[in-house]
Structures are given as structure tokens and as C-alpha cells.
Design a protein that fits this description.
By secondary structure, the protein is an alpha+beta fold. Helices cover 30% and strands 25% of the residues. It has eight helices and 13 strands. The strands form four sheets. It has a four-stranded antiparallel beta sheet. It has a four-stranded mixed beta sheet with strand order 5-8-9-10, with helices on both faces. A hairpin with a 2-residue loop joins strand 1 (21-26) and strand 2. Helix 3 (79-90) packs across helix 5, helix 5 crosses helix 8 and helix 6 packs across helix 8. The longest helix has 17 residues, at 140-156. The protein is elongated and about 70 Å long. The two termini are 39 Å apart. The mean pLDDT is 90.
């Protein structure tokens, strides 16, 4: 979502990158740098600025998500954050993720404020800072903090976005694909048949029906979609009529 409207109250005057600071944790210690120096510092190896605690009657749902891409668990403070981690897990090119990566201190017209972005994400295509908050819960003070984080990301040569919601069918599709993300045996040799059939194109239901065991083929199709050996259009609701393709034309 656009965060530019939140920048009206930011103090982006001369030398702001020398005044704004970032603090992160590494090897048990806290390290602080100006935004000017942040771009030249590796912080993805750090530890979260906040811990993920559980207590009785809390309104959010902290949890840990294991990502094969990184080989370790990553903290999430809500179900929305956990959903983002699942999408990052599905997306190609993920290298590393750090939850609650750093504490930004930035200047505004009314004084100094702080903000801890939700994730620092390293991909083969670049570095992203990501905040997660449902659109209906974003207040003006949140938008200002998001705009400040976007300015920091720009100064560091990173990307920034706010995950403010998902189209329902995208979340449902990725969740369905993830049900078959673990290693899956193929004793009946269904997978090569599906991969070959997808080179000609066809719907999810049609490809499943090209095999002798359609119910088992559906599980294999989900596995292939999760691991991106086959592809489909997530811009539309997924189902039996979804077109499945073999993007690389692999055998």
C-alpha cells in the first residue's frame, strides 16, 4: 500500500541520514549506526529486537515458522505475519529473513519517534523491509512510521512494502499448496506424467484426470505447484478450472 501520505510530518532536512539512527542486536550486544552507515552494515545475521512471548488472554497469536530456505525458525507476532512468512517461503529467491530486525529512531515535526519493522528479507533480487498490518488497523501514526521506514530503505538501496492484506483466493491457494510442501514419495510414477502433460497446458482437473489415480495426482500437483515446477495464475481463484503450465518446459 502507498505510504507517501505519512511523510508529511517527517523531518527530512539536511543531513537527516546522519541524525536518524538504527539499533540492532548481534552476538548478544546492541549496535547502533546512523542511517548513512546502515547500508554498509550486515544486519541479517542479528537477532530479533523483541522476543516472541505467549501469555494468557493476549489478543495476538505469536508463533514460530520453519523455513526450509533458511533452515531455521522465524518468529511472527500474529497470524498475518505468519501468513507473510508462508508466502515468502513459497516465493522464489528467498535467502534469509530476520524478524523484528532493528529499532529505527527518526525525527518528526513534533519530536523523535521509534519504530521496529516486522521483517528484513534478503532475496536474490535485493533486500526488503516489510511491515505487516491489516489495512483497517492502520492509524496516522502507523502510516508516519511506515513512511519513515520507507525513507530509510530508499537511503540504503533496499525495497520497502507494507503487507496490509491479501486477496482471499491468494491466501487460500498458497495455504493449499503448502499442505504438500514436505518431501512426497511417488511410487506410482504419477509426477512425470503430470509434468509432461503440463507442457501442453491444461486445467488442474484435466491434468489430474490424465493419470490412473486422480486423487493421488491432486496431491502431486499441489506438491509440484509449491515447489514451482509447475505454475498457475494466482490472480484468479484456484480450483479444478485453474490453468496449470510447465513454465520451464521441463521433463
Amino acid at each position: 500500500m502507498p505510504v507517501a501520505p505519512g511523510s508529511t510530518g517527517l523531518d527530512l532536512g539536511a543531513e537527516w541520514t546522519r541524525r536518524w539512527t538504527a539499533t540492532w542486536r548481534t552476538a548478544g550486544d546492541e549496535v547502533s549506526r546512523t542511517v548513512r552507515d546502515l547500508a554498509h552494515t550486515r544486519i541479517a545475521d542479528g537477532t530479533p529486537m523483541r522476543w516472541f512471548s505467549w501469555r494468557w488472554a493476549q489478543r495476538h497469536r505469536p508463533n514460530l515458522q520453519f523455513l526450509v530456505s533458511t533452515g531455521r525458525h522465524h518468529g511472527a507476532e500474529s497470524l498475518e505475519e505468519a501468513r507473510l512468512l508462508l508466502v515468502l517461503y513459497f516465493a522464489a529467491g528467498l535467502v534469509d529473513v530476520l524478524s523484528q530486525p532493528l529499532h529505527l529512531l527518526f525525527d518528526t515535526a513534533t519530536g523523535r519517534r521509534g519504530h521496529i519493522p516486522d521483517f528484513l528479507v534478503v532475496t536474490r533480487a535485493g533486500v526488503w523491509q516489510i511491515d505487516v498490518r491489516p489495512r483497517v488497523l492502520i492509524a496516522p501514526e502507523h502510516l508516519e512510521a511506515f513512511a519513515a521506514t520507507a525513507e530509510v530503505a530508499l537511503a540504503c538501496g533496499w525495497h520497502y512494502t507494507v503487507a496490509a492484506g491479501w486477496r482471499d483466493h491468494v491466501a487460500v491457494a498458497v495455504d493449499a499448496f503448502s499442505s504438500q510442501r514436505r518431501p512426497l514419495s511417488d511410487p506410482l510414477g504419477i509426477r512425470p506424467v503430470l509434468v509432461a502433460a503440463a507442457r501442453e497446458g491444461g486445467t488442474f482437473g484435466e491434468l489430474a484426470d490424465t493419470t490412473s489415480y486422480p486423487p493421488l495426482a491432486r496431491a502431486q500437483l499441489l506438491h509440484l505447484l509449491w515447489h514451482r515446477r509447475l505454475g498457475t495464475d494466482l490472480g484468479r481463484a484456484s480450483g479444478d478450472r485453474s490453468v496449470v503450465i510447465n513454465p520451464a518446459g521441463e521433463a
